[in-house]
Amino acid sequence: MVAIVDYGMGNLGSVEKALRFIGAEARLTSDPAEVRAASAVILPGVGAFDDCMRNLRESGLARPVVDAIETGKPFLGICLGLQVLFEESEEGGREKGLSLFRGRVLRFRHSLKIPQIGWNQIRRTQDAPQLAGVPDGAWVYFVHSYHVQPHDKNLIATVTDYGYEFPSAVRSENVFATQFHPEKSQRVGLQILRNFVASALP
Amino acid sequence: MLAKRIIPCLDVKEGRVVKGIRYVDFRDVGDPVDAARRYDEEGADELVFLDITASLEHRSTMIDIARRVAEQIFIPFTVGGGIRTVEDIRDTLLAGADKVSIMTAAVYDPDLINQAAERYGNQCIVVAVDAKRVPREGRDDSYLGPAPDEAIEWRIYTHGGTRPADVDALAYSIEAVRRGAGELLVTSIDADGTKAGYDLELLRRISESVSVPVIASGGAGSVDHLYQALDYGKADAVLAASIFHFQELTIQDVKRELAARGVTVRL
C-alpha cells in the first residue's frame, strides 16, 4: 500500500486519484501508524513551508516520514514535499526542514512572473530509474515561487529553465522528489507515478 | 522555458456543455467529461469549466462535474461561475478542481479573495476581471465612432457583463493581486463573442501592472488573435471557446502555428 501523507493542508486528493487511475493501491492518511506500515510513501505539498513543517511535526507525521526514507522505502516528494526535505526555506524561515539533505529553498531571483504557473520542460542530469520512459525535454506542470538549492549537486535529477536553470527534481537512492506536479502532468506525470509504484512492488 | 498556455473554456448549463461542440462523432457531445477528455488528448494545457447559469441550484452539478473530471483527466482545471463564499470554494477544490475563478462576489466583497487565498493558497484563486470600455469622464464622444485608447478607460461589469460596478478595471486588478489572486482571467465584455480579437490594450495594461499570470479571454476568432494576445497583449495564457468548438482547428493545429511564429508552447 502506498501512503499519501495528509497533513491537513487543502486538496491532496488529486494525487490519490491519479494513483487510483493507474491501478495502484493508495491511501490518503494522517495516521502515523499507517505511514509506518506502508510499503511506499508520497509526501505531496500545498501551502507554505513553515505551515507544512509545523503540521507534520504536530500531527506526529514528521518522524514516520523520515524513518520511511531512512529505512529505504520508496519515497516520492511533490512540490513542497520536495522542499521540506532540505534544511530551511526563505519562505517563512522560522521552521527547520526535515533536513534529510543539506541545502536551502530560495525564492526565484528574477523579474519574471512569480509564481511560475504552467508547463515547462525537464532536462535530465542523471539516469534516474524513476524517469524511465520519460523523454528528455518532457513537459510537466509547475506551480511554485520557491525552488531548492542542494548543497550536493549530485542529488539533482532534472533541471528546468525559468529565468535561470533550477533543480526541478532530486534523487538519492530510494528518494525521488519533484518540484513539478506529476499528478497534473498528463501522460508524462502518470508515467512517473507508474515508475514509482513499480519500484514499491516486492 | 515556460510555455504559453492554451486553455479551452467549456460553458456548462444544467450539467451539459453548450456552445455546440463540433465533434459530431461523439457518443455524447454535451458531456463535460467526454469534452474534457477530447481536449486533453488534443493537447489542451488546462481546462476551464464555467457555469453559465451560475445559480444556487446548479452548484451541486458543478461539484459533481469537478469530481468526475478529476478522476479521469490529469491536467489542471478551473471551475467558475456563481462562486460566492469560502464554502463554495472549499467544496469545489475538495471535489478535485485545481483552481476556482471568482468574479461578482469578489467585486462586492474583495475580502473573499484574502480569505480564500489564506486558506487555500494564492495558486488556486483565479480572479475574473470582466472589463468594458467606457469613455473617460466628460469625454463621451462615442457618436463620432469608436473612441481612441487615450479617450477611454475600462470599468468592471458584473452579472455576466450587464451591471456596472463603478470600479476601475486596472485598479481592481492590482488590488485583487495584492489581496492574494494567483492569476487574473481578463475578459473584455466588448470583444466577447465577436470573434474579432481580444482587447489587446486592456491585456497589455493589466499584464504590465501585475506580477501574476494573466489569462486573456473574450474575442478569439483566429490563431492570429491568440498570437496578438500573447505577443502585444503580454498574456501568459489564452482562453478560447468558439475557436475550438466551431472551427476545423484542433488545439494541436493552433499550437503548431503559434510555435511556427516563435511562441513557446507545449507540443
CATH homologous group name of chain B = Aldolase class I
Residue stretches of chain B low in confidence (pLDDT < 50, at least 5 long) are 20-27
CATH fold description of chain B: TIM Barrel
CATH architecture of chain B: Alpha-Beta Barrel
The radius of gyration over CA of chain B amounts to 18 Å
Helix and strand succession of chain B?
EEHEHEHEHHEEEHEHEHEHH
Spatially, the strands of the biggest sheet of chain A line up as 2-1-3-4-13-12-11-8
Query: SSE string of chain A, helix = H, strand = E?
Result: EHEHEHHEHEEEEEEEEEH
Global morphology of chain A: globular
Q: Mean pLDDT score of chain B, rounded? A: 88
Helix content of chain A: 25-40%
**What helical percentage do the residues of chain B reach?**
25-40%
CATH topology of chain A: Rossmann fold
- The stretches of 5 or more residues of chain A where confidence is low (pLDDT under 50) are none
User: What fraction of the residues of chain B are assigned to beta strands by DSSP?
Assistant: 15-25%
Count all strands of chain B and give the number.
11
**Total number of beta strands of chain A:** 13
Strand content of chain A: 25-35%
Describe this structure in words.
The complex is a heterodimer of chains A (202) and B (267). Chain A has 202 residues and is an alpha/beta fold. Chain A has one domain (2-200): Class I glutamine amidotransferase (GATase) domain (Rossmann fold). Helix content of chain A is 26%, strand content 31%. Chain A has helices at 13-21, 32-37, 49-58, 62-70, 80-83, 186-200; strands at residues 2-5, 26-29, 40-43, 75-78, 88-89, 103-107, 116-121, 123-124, 139-144, 146-150, 156-162, 164-172, 175-178. In chain A, the strands form three sheets. Chain A has an eight-stranded mixed sheet, sandwiched between helices. The longest helix of chain A has 15 residues, at 186-200. Chain B is built from ten helices and eleven strands. Chain B is globular and about 55 Å long. Chain B has a single domain (5-260), classed as Alpha-Beta Barrel (TIM Barrel). Chain B starts with a strand and ends in a 7-residue tail after the last helix. The interface between A and B is medium-sized, with 33 and 31 residues.
